[in-house]
Amino acid sequence: MSPFHRAALHELHWVARREVRVFPLLEQGGRPVPALLSGLLATLGIPHRIRRVGYEFQRGGNEMLVLNAAQ
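Request: output the structure for the sequence above.
Response:
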């Protein structure tokens, strides 16, 4: 994940009232986002979960990242 994307997720987490939803969790080319994302968010102190949804926006894109808002 690039420094830009890290900073963007951190800022979205900071300004959200309730939660931030990022969907679908795919990189360019349709590859799933690496599991390292959870580790990175944990090291940033951002509470999060990855939730499976009941549909695919793109092939393989049936997961959503949910960031809980900053307190």
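The chain is about 30% helix and 20% strand.
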